[in-house]
Amino acid sequence: MKVRFWGVRGSIPVPGRSTSRYGGNTSCVEVRPKGGSPIIIDAGTGLRRLGKSLMEEAFGDGKGKTAILISHTHWDHVQGLPFFSPLYRAGNQVHIFARQRDMHLEAVFSQQHDSPYFPVPLSAMHADMQFHELIEGAQFDIGNARITCTRLNHPWVAIAYRIDVDGASVTYCADTAPFADILFGREFIVQAPSLDEPLPPDVAAELARMRAGVVALAKNTDLLIYDTQFTRDEYRLRPHWGHSHPDDAIAIARDANVKRLCLFHHAPMRSDDDNDKILAKYRAVITAQNDRFELVSAYEGLEITLGDE
Amino acid sequence: MKIRFWGVRGSIPAPGPDTIRYGGNTACVSIHTKAGGLVIIDMGTGLMHLGNALMAGPFGKGQGRATILLSHTHWDHIQGLGFFSPVFIAGNQFTVWGPGGSPGVLEGILEGQMDPNFSPLQSLKNFSAKFDVRAAPCGDTFEAEGLTVTAREHAHGATTALAFRIVEDGRVFVYSSDVGQPFPDTPPTEDTVAFFQGADVLLHDTTYRPTEQATRRNRGFSSYEDAAHVAVAAKVGRLVMFHYDQDYSDDDVDEMTASCRAVLDANGGKAVGLVPAREGDELEI
Lengths: 309, 285
Known about the structure:
A: 14 strands; B: alpha/beta; seven-stranded mixed beta sheet; 14 strands; 21% helix; globular
């Protein structure tokens, strides 16, 4: 399979000179099994250019089929959907998978298309759209690919996906905070809590259980894509935002024995030069620690081939 | 007044190497008044960068105030709000004038953007700054940071967007983004021309080239040709091109600017100045 990055940025798209090498589009990754239909992870603004590219294939004739796996419905992970060209062509099939919410998923996605916000309602999309609600620990197949998922530590809940196909696997963990300081749920956390107080035992146990789930999901995976929005120092200032940092991602990668770790969901104000420095710093760290995995940093256009081509 | 462009792109932010010169952020324009006041028009992703710049002044200390004029509530005109740093500092005050007909309706629409399914902020109530949301009256004038503002509803496809005529000491700036008749060959009405009449600067929607607009009339945007014609009819001083389609590269905008110049010149508009809006540029009126 081939994994291609169309959007690597967190929170909000950031056009401009200082982000032009890594790219300013929000989260969107294409996984292309050998000879199969594309599986898309997240629908940030990167989805717009992916959609245009897909229109050059069967989708342009209304004969395309794809599945979009949504980690969670925060704007930066869904805001590309109204601009996904294949939706405007009758005959295309678009299956959207996301964790169950309070409302039916279709109602959640409809809100984005409602008239005060967008001129074209979801019901006016010409493609055949189907919504699939996932529950905790769901496993399912898309073509020859096996999909498994587990819960992440993020406000209002996000989920990680693992895709196994063509004798290889990719695991996508965004968005998540470390499993160390705050257990995220539904409450709004106004300001950063102290990180030096011990956690209540039940909270610590729940976080440990969640972390074990992530390590199990990523076990021996060929490519682990991980939310590293923050540096460690930035994380200590904003632990209540629900994002992680490279030190935490490296610890997970080590415990899960992954083959390659990909830094992802870069902070909006992170310049290309900053990203270069972070990558160089942590390559030195893993070399010094004799880690066996390779470290890369996601940029728009990066394509990684895994397993059988 | 001094006008600055923070976002000039239409529909969706368009990052990439081919949008670096004009910029890929969605609509946001600031006006600094002679008296030191701040008026912001539209809250696209450009608003984040304006906010970061403002944090160096009174807004960083919770002593800032500004008026925000909102043309309409499509995503690309409100999506910067949750990333506008001054809203997280207690003491800052904002008056928001926008569409919706009543303050409650407008506030409800902005609240919908912060719904916990979509935003970790969960609610406008989690903003620390004070927000006074008001419905912009169409036709009547109102005051914004010492400037006199008149709002007018213009066709925007199946819906409408507000245009603003803003006056400081007899100098006139008109902001008219996201306007476009859904039907071909519809000339601007006399009322529209009157609203733009004699503006020192008319910022007008130029989302499309005429050829591309022809197949997308229902979307409610203008071509640079539409903008040039109305600028000549209203005898404006300068025309600002704005809200470029997300698919246009910097080279495309260069070419559209040259073509717009030619349309102006061929239609009695040689005296009309032409400025393609570009992120970071300033205009003094």
